[in-house]
Amino acid sequence: MDYTLEQIYPKEYKGDLILLHGSEVADRTMPLAKKELEYLRSRCGEEKETVVVFDRLPHHLYVVCFDSEQEEPLCQERLRRLADQVVGLLKADKVASVAVTGVGVIAEEVVAFVEGLQLADYSFDRYKGKKPYHLEHVAVDSTFLTPEELDRSVRLWRRIDWCRQMVDTPVADLNADRFAKELEQQAKSLGVDCTVLNKKKIEALRMGGLLAVNKGSVDEPRFVVLEYHPDGAINPKPLALVGKGIMYDTGGLNIKPDDYMQEMKSDMAGAATMASVLFAAAANRLPVHLVAFLPLTDNRPSFNAYAADDVLTMYDGTTVEVVNTDAEGRLILADAIAYAVANYQPELLIDAATLTGAAVRAIGTYGIAAMQQHADNPFNLLRIMGNQVYERVAEFPFWSEYDKLIESEVADIKNCGIAQAGAITAGKFLAHFAKETPYIHLDIAGVAFFSKKQHYYRPGASGFGIRLLYAFLQTYEMVKIKN
Ligand code: BES
Ligand code: MN
Ligand code: ZN
Fold first, then answer.
1. Residue 460 and residue 439 in one domain
2. pLDDT at residue 478 above 70?
3. How far is the CA of 82 from the centre of ligand 3 (A)?
């Protein structure tokens, strides 16, 4: 999809037009006849939010009525969802090029609506013989934003799209090596530093967690480090982004039963998310020094696969008793976190991981299960930005009692606790490796990949969390001032 800015006069526009319509609007600014206005009033009166289509043969006018009296983030979210409705109509009308303007709306609402068009238009077409419909061109009314503002949003949206493509690609076409190569290529095009460590190097570094999970695989693991270090960065020490990169999660020898395995191509969503956030920040030259740490491997059973009861020695020397080979994400993340802390002394470390089914059972598919340690200020900012962009985070308790649940008889700690509080014990396991570094853990298992359509997301990868972290980085300066 490409975007342009144009001056749009609703009453004169020749072409398919979307008109956003806030609550209080003077009638005379509407490109509608008296009867049409009456009709619109009756429709909007019944259901405050609705899309009303007027024929302007051969074109259409889509009037999107929304309740602009609500709180701003909610208005914007409603507009993203209405955009999904509009994409359905455009598809039915075979419209590939459309213009967007509005009356009684603010710039942020127009951007949110266009963002909704972009997110709703995504589909994973790689293996489709007949390419499905897509919206090809959107002209946005230049009264609302500058070319630079539009470009910045578009660069972020392109990264979300790339993330979804990666997550939707099955392991047969995207193993650790191929994903590392793709990351290298993307980094190169943006002037981001990229280091790819191969198995030999990972062995030399003694990353016992990543190597154990990889033992059952015929494909080598990779450990990718991306660095974006702009001149004049506001943070003297880097911000570390760690992402779970399980290219496929069969569960290993504790193999996943029946249909629990399906969709596990998405188990590298954390890595794709963190790479996307760093790439978007680099593309838009945000003044924040970022380093992403992405451990990549699949998790499979084989004659040589790692087994429950194994004791691993991790990168930082911690010994770990394996209780279940399906709790593999935390093992590769532990090495990545320990590596980041030891070699980069980050001022804050955030990880994103499709880590536990427990997180999904706790809060469903409506937000991110989050935990933090020594990071009250940045976490508050993250929570605020989550509400702003409607990618919300719910903070779970991180009480010391939970540490007891991962104490081991034979090693320093074990890789899973009891059935209760599974999302939290997973977070606690990771926090052990973050040590004193301010740390935020984001369990994105419920939101990275949707089995069913959810609002403007089709079934499949969502890119959920990228807008959140990008908004966080944009406002990260606020935390610095408070400190
Ligand atoms: N990748 C899964 C978690 C997951 C589940 C992500 C559902 C997305 C949707 C993770 O590696 C896993 O298998 N977790 C286990 C942990 C358990 C063995 C302690 C789980 O949640 O069941
Ligand atoms: Mn697993
Ligand atoms: Zn997993």
1. yes
2. yes
3. 34
